[in-house]
Please model this.
Amino acid sequence: MRLTDQYVWHIVFSLFFVWMLVYGTLLLDMYAVRTIESLSVFELALIVLASFRLTRLFVYDSIMGFFRDQFYDVSTKRGNGTQLAKPASGPRRTVADLISCPWCMGMWITATVVFFYLLSPYTHFIIYILALAGVVTPLQLIANLIGWKAEQTKRDVEQL
Model:
């Protein structure tokens, strides 16, 4: 295996993530209004749904494109105008890799959601809203699929 400077940045960001987890755990030990053991199954489901929605927001949704674009380079292609490309190396490449990966981003976001849920009851309302939005997303996809199927059936009947 060849060692590159990109491995160094991945290690730096991994160590930062571990440090944040340890520091967050210490802060929760001192200031949390809830413990992780006291969470109900319903609250865990809320956290899962809120984390799902935030992950989707940061990784895929166009509204956060301005944030993701900061970590990409502009490359020009003939005939296609400008396109974005991941930097070749460096910390921006590591962040670009992170924010384009739902599994990677999901770890950071879930840790953040759990941290704030345990730390302050003032964040619960935001997490409820995000959880409800997380439920709405699959419902919308199902509704779109039903509409698409109905449209397909209508076209098939018209062709007969």
Summary: The longest strand covers residues 73-77. Residues 5-60+104-159 form one domain.
